[in-house]
Known about the structure:
Radius of gyration of chain A: 28 Å
Strand content of chain B: under 5%
Helix content of chain B: 55-70%
Strand order of the largest sheet of chain A: 3-2-1-4-8-9-10
Structural class of chain B: mainly alpha
Largest sheet of chain B: none
Structural class of chain A: alpha/beta
Oligomer: heterodimer
Strand content of chain A: 5-15%
Amino acid sequence: FQDQAEQFFRSGHTNNWAVLVCTSRFWFNYRHVANTLSVYRSVKRLGIPDSHIVLMLADDMACNPRNPKPATVFSHKNMELNVYGDDVEVDYRSYEVTVENFLRVLTGRIPPSTPRSKRLLSDDRSNILIYMTGHGGNGFLKFQDSEEITNVELADAFEQMWQKRRYNELLFIIDTCQGASMYERFYSPNIMALASSQVGEDSLSHQPDLGIGVHLMDRYTFYVLEFLEEIHPASQTNMNDLFQVCPKSLCVSTPGHRTDLFQRDPQDVLITDFFGSVRKVEITTETISLDSDLAGFESKLLQDEMAAEPLKYAEQLPVAQIIHQKPKQKDWHPPGGFILGLWALIIMVFFKTYGIKHMKHIF
Amino acid sequence: VVEGLALLDLGVSPYSGAIFHETPLIIYLFHFLIEYAELVFMITDVLTAVALYLAIQDFNKVVFKKQKLLIELDKYAPDVAELIQTPMEMHYIPLKVALFYLLNPYTVMSCVAKSTCAINNTVTAFFILATIKGSAFLSAVFLALATYQSLYPLTLFAPALLYLLQRQFIPIKLKNKSFWLYTMQYAALYLCSLLVIICLSFFLLNSWDFIPSVYGFILSVPDLTPNIGLFWYFFAEMFEHFSLFFICVFQINVFFYTIPLSIKLKEHPVFFMFVQIAIISIFKSYPTVGDIALYMAFLPVWSHLYRFLRNIFVLSCVLIVCSLLFPVLWHLWIYAGSANSNFYYAITLTFNIGQILLISDYFYAFLRREYYLTHGLHLTRQDGTEVMLVLK
């Protein structure tokens, strides 16, 4: 019974959310919208409902006047897969995709008039998937060609989420150039991060479609999607397989991941813990009697849980170690030779002007 | 200075940023005194006032002695008794000078703003004190310090030299050997101390990059933040390929007046010093109101010229109104956005014109008094009509 109960509470989450952000506008950034919509499609297929997905697309590709196939966004060349479809629900569109709105969604500090579909109503038992794509650099991600979000801001936003108990576990995936720099600064617990390229590398796009005229997908997301196509709600594939997706031979850039903040071993983390919304339901026909014996058992279970989860929300991880800050330099002092020379000069000038007879008064 | 010290604490040269343009000796001074910065600036202002007080006291004695000598030698015309200075009226002049410096709103403002101009003023005041006391060595050392801080006191070499020559009773004739000997001595002292100070600053940071940051900055004027001077607007509007030419023109403008003034005012080196300090503070590349405070402190010394000044009312109005309008137009330009840089530039222009008017007025009054002293108060032409002196 204990093992079954342990299995039941293995991951500790009871609901799943997804925040999918595409930060680029303009027609030639078609692939970023296609990336986001593909992930959206997979996530929906695996069970997360629209009410639990916050989809932010910075531009409208489907109805862009340059789109030769209006109302479609393809993710595969030869127009094999239309990821736009009839049931795409975009929550933040066009100019609403700003750094401020993104951070407000994450931290929950939203004006009271915001509709429910635009809110991230997660709680402390939610596993959140955050997927971001666009143009980025070392330490920043560009939003809409006019502003940036830095890795420090993102880390602080996640810390706010942790302190407000807005997530149980968080999976952060980023597909931009130098994406690994965006997760360097995280310091909150229970975050796992994946990026499509290391600092100094560019993430490359996959295949252009000559009929549409632009690149349709980025390599990393393309191979992640191929991987996700084989996942179904009951699959037991774990995170280590996801880390192997898109090796350097296929992706040209080196994908990176970060698991030091995550409490559980990545081997025990199922893909569906983040990408799907799997309700752990066990149907039983037996009756289980809850008797007074359970009180002792409960406290034992609580102890086990507490032993497994030593971190309270109030305690924080050692931030300085995680962020790898440079140690503070020693204070500068003027060199001894300089001080000596300066004061020798001053004393010489003094005695030259006022005569040597003062020397015996001073010494 | 705070930024420079912070950069040093991080292990980076303070001159690698674009903000710190002070000399290494200031780094050394403030490394230990940065927490007591307000106290430091108050003490420097007090030191400047004390130095000016002592200098003017000595100067009065010199003036008085010279006057007596000239009266005995019968160099003065008979009817100029009212123009001669008496010890009674000169008694309070040093105190007035010190008070003029300390109570000047410009001094107060630069002390509150903790501008290093106060330190420059102190060094210049000590230089003046050393010169008037007659010690060539000390005056060369302080002049070297002042030049090391901001390049322009180099022009004060000429009046100091003239004063010291006068004190040693060496006539200023180009063929005179002792004149050249003394000049060489003084110049050698000055250059050697300057070299020693610069080499010492090298040893503070073990690098020479303070030289382009401090002197290159003063001479090439890269930073065009608006100030009360004339450089910023001009060079903000300038095309790139003319800027070198005009920088040279503007910088020569500061140094240019030394030679003609030294020829005209070779008998009166302290007045020459005053005019030179004023010219520096008007035409330097980054003037501040602290520089103005220094030469305004000297005005009581020439209070006997009052009857010859012609533009007192206009001048004082212009200076007061412009000083009051500076912050108003700054606010309107930068914060309210309803004015633009031309307004502020107009006020800079007017303010500097006021200052130039002040200098030329005093210059005119001084020369007029000298002329009256030797030629008598009531000037007449050959045919007996009254004449008026003009400054050509």
